[in-house]
Amino acid sequence: TANGARPGRRRRIGVMGGTFDPIHHGHLVAASEVQSSYDLDEVVFVPTGQPWQKSGREVSPAEHRYLMTVIATAANPRFWVSRVDIDRGGPTYTVDTLRDLRTAMPDAELYFITGADALAGIFGWRGHEQLFELAHFVGCTRPGYEMDDAALAAIPSDRVAMLEIPALAISSTDCRDRQRAGQPVWYLVPDGVVQYITKHGLYADLARTDPPTL
Ligand code: ATP
Ligand code: MG
């Protein structure tokens, strides 16, 4: 079927974890490339709770990051957004994300999608011993980041694959800096996300607003 389950094959679900502050076209192209290369049935975007690796800066409220991710992915029938990390509360560890998704979808094969930069730090992730039992890992090469060969060599080769995606030198950091400096973020992030950022005064420092209460 066009978008449904295929008989005789386990469902393949991509898992794209991120802070998404804001989500940008680099994230979306990476997810789309992995979806197509690995013939994934769906990709679930999972915005982090309070990100433990980003304690050096203030991260936008989770509801803002969640809603921007929903706006950015809404038109793609294979893309979904999960609240597991946000609703769990506390810092997000990938091992918890994968365990929760495994519980929700016990029959699915999970493919964790991550930038090669983040993959290089995998042995610093909590519960890394169990990570490879829970999911395959797909490391996306990303312009400006060099893969640490030693770190890659330590990863079980049957559980990790590298995928070169079209070079998109976009980062959330750059989008925030541009917004703060009054430079355009149009075409770096989806149109609806530009409008959401403006509407809520995100990344303006002085004009910070509270997340919507629904
Ligand atoms: P920040 O600049 O705040 O760190 P970011 O752009 O790295 O933000 P994250 O939310 O940290 O975005 O990234 C989520 C995942 O997407 C990570 O695995 C990251 O490596 C990957 N990623 C981010 N930007 C790109 C890109 N342009 N191409 C491929 N992968 C990317
Ligand atoms: Mg990052």
Automatic annotation (TrEMBL):
Coiled-coil stretches noted in the UniProt entry, renumbered to this chain: none
Annotated GO MF terms: nicotinate-nucleotide adenylyltransferase activity
Domain Cytidyltransferase-like: 15-178
Catalytic reaction annotation: nicotinate beta-D-ribonucleotide + ATP + H(+) = deamido-NAD(+) + diphosphate
Entry keyword set: ATP-binding, NAD, Nucleotide-binding, Nucleotidyltransferase, Pyridine nucleotide biosynthesis, Transferase
Listed pathway(s): Cofactor biosynthesis; NAD(+) biosynthesis; deamido-NAD(+) from nicotinate D-ribonucleotide: step 1/1
Pfam families in the record: CTP_transf_like
Assigned EC number: 2.7.7.18
Domain of life: Bacteria
Listed InterPro entries: Cyt_trans-like, NadD/NMNAT, Rossmann-like_a/b/a_fold
Stored PANTHER family: NICOTINATE-NUCLEOTIDE ADENYLYLTRANSFERASE-RELATED, PHOSPHOPANTETHEINE ADENYLYLTRANSFERASE
Similarity-based family: Belongs to the NadD family.
Free-text function comment from the UniProt entry: Catalyzes the reversible adenylation of nicotinate mononucleotide (NaMN) to nicotinic acid adenine dinucleotide (NaAD).
Protein name as it appears in the record: Probable nicotinate-nucleotide adenylyltransferase
Biological source species: Nocardioides aquaticus
